[in-house]
Amino acid sequence: MTPERIRRLEDLSFQWRLHDRKNWWDEYQLLREYWVEHGDFNIPTDKPEGLHLVEWAKVQRRHYKRRQQGDYSFLTDDRVRALDAIDFVWDKFEARWMERFSQLGKFRSQYGHCNVTKNSAGEYGTLYSWVRQQRHIRKLGDTGMGKPMPMKRIKLLDEEGFVWDAAEELWNQNYEKLVHFQRSNGHCDVQCTVNEPLYVWIWRLREAYKKFRDGKKSTLNFERIMRLEKIGFQWTK
After folding, report:
1. Could you give the CA distance from residue 72 to residue 63 in angstroms, rounded to a whole number?
2. What burial class does residue 43 get, using C-beta atoms within 10 Å of its C-beta: 0-12 exposed, 13-18 middle, 19+ buried?
3. Alpha-carbon distance 131 to 125, whole Å?
4. 100: nearest Cα among 162, 144, 53
């Protein structure tokens, strides 16, 4: 029998060995148990049972699509309701998005933030690319140059502490470090021997201020300048 015929029969939930093959509800129960324990459907595929359950979920999505198109589907109303009850993700693209979102949550639990970089992604593989993609999609939607990102996704990412502007986040982190230094020392004159990273950032601030003053493109704006001057920052050393 060809692989194509085997796939078509299994799509119909064909029972190859009736005496030991689980029925639909047994498979559903396994999926439900995983969802109850983990809160998602990001099932590891390093074991046969996990791989089987992932493939079973894919078959459900294919048959749900057939059902919507009016074609034959083994998904009855009660089966659809059962899967809906555990927030099963019917759309395969949405399912992939939720897998990445779940990875981001694990990253945040491990590192305490969502600002994924090339260096920090590590075991999370392509998470850095996914994070950049979310920022790009949101930016295109906000500027009217692309399809708006669904509010559901924006809300989920915001609740997770997602960093939409990595450069802005880094600037604010350095600013807070300078504020802390000023409160501890009474001035903003950071020496290289005391805190080299902050010293370099301050040097870049002064270079950016020269460009801003000359009307050139700069990382500084009026709002940032006012925040710095408020804590007594001096533009000339």
Report:
1. 8
2. buried
3. 12
4. 162
Sign of the torsion angle spanned by Cα atoms 184, 186, 190, 194: negative
The tally of CA atoms less than 13 A away on the side-chain side of residue 116 is 28
Per-residue pLDDT averaged across 195-203, rounded?
96
Prediction pTM value: 0.62
Residues 6 or more apart in contact with residue 173 via CB below 8 angstroms:
none
Q: How many residues does the chain have?
A: 237
Whether 113 contacts 163, CB under 8 Å: yes
Q: Sign of the CA dihedral 152, 154, 155, 160?
A: positive
Q: What is the pLDDT of residues 111-129, one digit of tens each?
A: 888 888 877 766 777 888 8
- In whole angstroms, give the CA distance from residue 102 to residue 70: 33
Alpha helix positions (H), 161-195: 166-185
Handedness of CA 35, 37, 40, 46 (dihedral sign): negative
**Helix 222-230, helix 196-213: angle, nearest 10:** 130
Task: Report CA dihedral (48, 78, 58, 160) to the nearest 10 degrees.
Answer: -90
Contact 128, 121 (CB under 8 A): yes
Q: Yes or no: say if 236 and 188 are a contact pair by the CB < 8 Å rule.
A: no
Q: Which residue has the tokens 């390093």?
A: 46
